[in-house]
Amino acid sequence: MKDYFFDLNGATELHCELPKFRYLHAADRLGVTDLVIKWPGGADSAPLASYFNDADICRTKLWGGIVLDRTVGGLNPTAVEKSAEVGGKFVWLPTVDAVHHRRINDQSIDGAVSLFDSRSRPVAELTAILERVAEFGQVLGTGHISPDETEAVIELAVEKGVRRIIVNHPLLIGADTQALLRMTRHKAVTIEHCYVPDHEIPFDVSLIVEAIDEVAPDQTVVADFGDFGREKNIADALVERGVSPDKMLALTGSNAQLVLAS
Known about the structure:
This protein is 39% helix and 13% strand. With 262 residues, it is an alpha/beta fold. It has one domain: Metal-dependent hydrolases (TIM Barrel). Helix 3 runs parallel beside helix 5. The longest helix has 17 residues, at 245-261. The chain is globular.
């Protein structure tokens, strides 16, 4: 067992990709108040979240939603509607099937899900989805699209009335501080930082520390706590690098709760 530094009691997990029942038990045992199930390339997690919440199995509340990868038909407005009908709170733009994700991972872009046409205009399905996200009061996640695409989507989403946009781990997909500053000019935007200490692709976590200090700290959260209680996570890494307890409580708790309350 490694040494751990940050107590997740009272934390909100906005980015859990681990579809195993034991992770829910672990989160509950540690006192995580809310947990968002995100399945890149997978099925809508809203029905599962609804089932467990109704069953009252644990204190941790689950939240679900749909990732608009090819599994669910890509940019599929009907799938967004159906997710909302069963309590889906989140709609994430493409992740593993995003053009940008494919490119930075040296994968073929054949069949990738495109948000914009060859003239950089939003495709009709994207506009329809943003309208539905606004109508149903859902949270829009930017997935693994490029920084330029993210900025364009934010502008369009705000125009369509989307009330909460979470920019998923932008530093991991190539955004810089200046891009984050432009994104957070919109109060609807929350920047989400993720970091896996033992990830096979190294990343300098000090860049996250710098971004937290420099870019809209009240519009910033940290997420993806991994295998609860069994491995170090982003919260531990930030505490190791001197992020204060008060700031950590906001990054893992109150700021994240504002996303869910939208």
